[in-house]
Specification:
The protein has one domain (2-195): BirA Bifunctional Protein, domain 2. 44% of the residues lie in helices and 14% in strands. The protein contains 6 helices and 4 strands. It has a 4-stranded antiparallel β-sheet with strand order 1-2-3-4, covered by helices on one side. Helix 1 crosses helix 6 (172-195) and helix 3 packs across helix 6. The longest helix has 25 residues, at 5-29. It starts with a helix and ends with a helix.
Length: 196
């Protein structure tokens, strides 16, 4: 890092300026957008070695969360070396938040399934992000619950990957808008679930 610090700082500043533009663009298409300037949204370059001791000290990508209201599901983006991605939702939320999501699914899981089973949503994101799941039913829920497949999840997030050449296409901003809007009902369902 010491040998490349100047280059890193220059690229980081460019990324922040780009995030500032995205922040303005997304605010124009979403009335409920939470303003998140680049410096507020950008993630640290250091990996958290306390929880992930086997990871390298530094990440090999730039990342940020936008529409980042406190304690909500944000819109995440990651620009990597060969491949990049958009994502959103909640990754391994704390037990109280996870319980709120499960309670929402118990109450109106059909609405959530309708969102994630839309053909356009499936085409954009596929299934929910594959992470750890419970092998049995969560406490307080029956194993034959109609939404047990969802209730076992510990992470509620989706990902859309794309090749880096797309970054330099004229229609890239439209791609961001398309992904953001497709993900919005999913994120709003989660935010409603955890705000009650």
């Amino acid at each position: 890092m010491d040998e490349n610090r100047k280059r890193y700082k220059a690229l980081r500043n460019e990324f922040i300026l780009w995030l500032d533009q995205l922040n303005l663009m997304l605010a124009e298409i979403d009335d409920e957008y939470y303003p998140t300037p680049g410096r507020k949204g950008i993630n640290r370059i250091n990996n958290n070695l306390m929880f992930h001791p086997n990871k390298p000290i530094y990440k090999d990508f730039f990342a940020a969360g936008l529409d980042k209201a406190p304690k909500t599901a944000d819109f995440y983006l990651e620009i990597g070396i060969d491949e990049s991605l958009f994502a959103g939702g909640l990754w391994r939320p704390e037990p109280g938040v996870l319980r709120s999501i499960r309670d929402a699914l118990d109450y109106d899981g059909d609405e959530f399934k309708q969102i994630i089973n839309q053909p356009s949503f499936r085409e954009m994101f596929g299934d929910l992000y594959e992470d750890e799941k419970l092998k049995t039913s969560p406490k307080g829920f029956s194993s034959d619950h109609s939404h047990i497949d969802l209730l076992r999840h510990k992470t509620f997030a989706v990902i859309h990957t794309f090749p880096n050449e797309l970054l330099f296409k004229k229609n890239f901003n439209q791609k961001i808008i398309d992904v953001y809007l497709e993900m919005l009902p999913f994120r709003r369902y989660l935010n409603k679930a955890i705000s009650v």
